[in-house]
Specification:
By secondary structure, the chain is of the alpha+beta class. The chain is built from 10 helices and 7 strands. It has a 5-stranded mixed sheet. Strands 6-7 form a two-stranded antiparallel ribbon. The chain binds iron/sulfur cluster (2 copies). One iron/sulfur cluster (SF4) is lined by residues 63, 154-160, 174-175, 178, 218-220, 222, 224.
Length: 242
């Protein structure tokens, strides 16, 4: 395993002032355990301060550094140089923004517009339910709890939406559907009917082609396609089903 690599990043740039898009090549010497966010920062510090990209926690928990590397949506903070060279079998990487919302500049896309799909499913408790009269707490079956915890690991990085072949404007997209299913599973939520109408409506689960691309790219290893398949099978029409 080499300790350093000669890396080429072919980055899709966008200049909103002149509405100009182009591919810019950057050549870097990179240590094997640098992450792609480190490479972006290195470009800013050493070559080009005008190059724009997005990140926040840089620990795989906030979902703001999502980009496409050689066509695969992923988190730039989680991809090490040596893993990238090995996985893609090349030191040359095409870097593009996710196309889930309009690009603001270079690798930065409009998160407000991306979140509109999530907003449509109302990812919060609409109408709080009281615990059962004979109990002072909400109850949930172990199986549902397992699914609930699994689904709530989503960080809304939009990698799944970017990979989804059905993710055009008439489809809610995998992470929005997941956000909806979380609240259907949530025993604190009384308002299930409104949610099911959206989930099973014309923009919902039946637009999914079952390609499983969402599960393949999810950095939190959530089997999103499995949740969608359960929904298609009617699982969430009756949340008491095991
Ligand atoms: S389901 Fe996975 S890929 Fe999709 S937004 Fe959530 S964390 Fe990202
Ligand atoms: S399984 Fe469905 S939701 Fe997931 S990527 Fe494929 S079409 Fe999209």
């Amino acid at each position: 395993m080499a300790s350093h690599y000669h890396i080429t990043l072919k980055i899709r740039r966008y200049d909103p002032e002149n509405r100009r898009s182009w591919i810019q090549n950057y050549h870097l010497e990179a240590g094997r355990i640098l992450r792609f966010v480190d490479l972006f920062r290195k470009i800013n510090n050493e070559q080009d301060p005008t190059f724009s990209w997005n990140s926040s926690c840089e620990h795989g928990q906030c979902g703001t550094c999502s980009v496409k590397i050689n066509g695969k949506p992923l988190l730039a903070c989680e991809l090490l140089v040596e893993n990238a060279v090995q996985y893609f079998n090349t030191p040359v990487f095409n870097v593009e923004p996710l196309e889930v919302a309009p690009v603001v500049r270079d690798l930065v896309f409009d998160l407000t517009k991306a979140y509109k799909r999530i907003d449509q499913v109302k990812p919060y408790v609409i109408s709080p339910a009281n615990p059962p009269s004979d109990q002072d707490e909400y109850s949930i079956s172990p199986n549902e709890m397992k699914q609930y915890i699994n689904a709530t690991r989503c960080i809304n990085c939009f990698c799944c939406s970017s990979a989804c072949i059905s993710s055009h404007r008439n489809f809610l997209g995998p992470n929005a559907m997941l956000a909806s299913m979380i609240r259907v599973l949530d025993p604190r939520e009384k308002e299930k009917a409104q949610r099911l109408k959206i989930l099973y409506g014309h923009r919902g689960v039946y637009r999914c082609h079952s390609s499983r691309a969402c599960s393949f790219v999810c950095p939190k290893e959530i089997d999103v396609a499995h949740f969608v398949a359960l929904a298609k099978a009617g699982r969430f029409n009756d949340p008491n089903n095991e």
